[in-house]
Design brief:
There is one protein chain. The protein has about 325 residues and is α/β, with parallel strands linked by helices. The chain is built from ten helices and eleven strands. The strands form three sheets. Strands 6, 7, 8, 9, 10 and 11 form a six-stranded mixed beta sheet that branches. A hairpin with a 5-residue loop joins β2 and β3. The N terminus is likely disordered.
């Protein structure tokens, strides 16, 4: 899953100090610190504020049906370590589940993570299988407005986002075999494995259109990022791409750190957002208020530090801050 869902700005944008971050010996996990500006988007939705005047707690903002159930159903592609994954005991673990647990304490409900493929999460929201989607999903204008990023045609009603983290995208290759790949342009004439319907997938398609001399990028798209990693590990693809935290985690852990290496710099700085179906303003307000509370009380910082991703931390939750 790479900075998850298609978002296309200047693919050549570089994230400062990535080289130093990429060789860090702890979790090797950081993300860009350049929070995307909301350009007034918060004013365009009723869900743009947290607890309203006179509200005693974020829990008071929850819709009555969710209060009654005591559960928020979370759609998530639980195959994207370290953001969300199954640990050795089969339990759901990672940054998002930990944040969900903290939010649940503030709201007085359980955040119940339910596994689904990434490209079905938004349709799951529309079908009311999930109350929210929390899966390293990039907040973009296209997703907010239900616009297909390739055709630019409206394909749905869109979703609202509560932004809670920032991340960029990285390219990685087999360790010791980068084949001269340092930038996206270097992928022309080569094969890349990515997760379907992600920023990495989008970047690969856009870059391939620019390749000269008929040397397009051969793109293999998979349901999960782990499947893409397996393809690269076996030599079936020249490179892969994921969010920097995810790519760095794979570099650190796969094959005991012997399988992969990050090449070049991060691109595509963008916020991760918790997605909520349009019209669920109370739920959006409640989650924003709860996120602001765990940021303020320090619980958010503890979770971010636990996973070694401090550089992607935010100081406040934003509604529809992506561009």
């Amino acid at each position: 899953m790479t900075a998850r869902f298609t978002r296309r700005t200047a693919a050549t944008t570089r994230i400062a100090a990535v080289g130093a971050l990429a060789v860090a010996g702890t979790m090797l996990l950081t993300a860009c610190g350049d929070q995307t500006k909301n350009n007034g988007a918060e004013e365009s939705t009723k869900a743009s504020t947290g607890a309203s005047a006179g509200t005693s707690s974020p829990a008071d903002l929850l819709p009555a049906d969710i209060k009654a159930k005591g559960v928020i159903r979370v759609g998530s592609d639980i195959a994207y370590p370290p953001v969300e994954f199954k640990d050795k005991s089969g339990n759901t673990a990672g940054i998002d589940p930990d944040l969900g647990a903290a939010l649940g304490k503030v709201l007085g409900v359980e955040f119940k993570f339910e596994n689904g493929t990434f490209d079905t999460l938004v349709t799951g929201l529309r079908a009311k299988r999930y109350d929210i989607a929390m899966s390293a999903m990039t907040d973009s204008k296209e997703r907010q407005e239900g616009i297909d990023p390739e055709t630019k045609k409206k394909v749905g009603e869109g979703v609202d986002f509560v932004d809670y983290f920032t991340a960029g995208v990285s390219i990685y290759t087999k360790k010791g075999d980068d084949q001269g790949i340092k930038t996206w342009a270097d992928l022309c004439g080569k094969k890349i494995a990515v997760q379907r319907n992600t920023v990495s997938h989008d970047l690969a398609k856009d870059e391939s259109k620019k390749c000269a001399g008929g040397k397009k990028i051969a793109i293999e798209a998979y349901d999960t990022d782990l499947e893409a990693q397996t393809r690269i590990r076996s030599g079936g693809a020249d490179a892969g791409s994921s969010d920097f935290p995810v790519a760095a985690y794979a570099v650190k852990t796969s094959g005991g750190g012997k399988d992969f290496q990050i090449v070049g710099d991060q691109v595509e700085a963008a916020p991760y957002g918790i997605a909520i179906a349009k019209g669920n303003d109370k739920l959006t307000q409640a989650i924003k208020a709860a996120m602001d509370e765990i940021i303020e009380n320090g619980e958010y910082g503890k979770i971010i530090a636990k996973w070694g991703v401090e550089a992607g931390a935010v100081t406040e939750a934003k509604v529809n801050g992506g561009s």
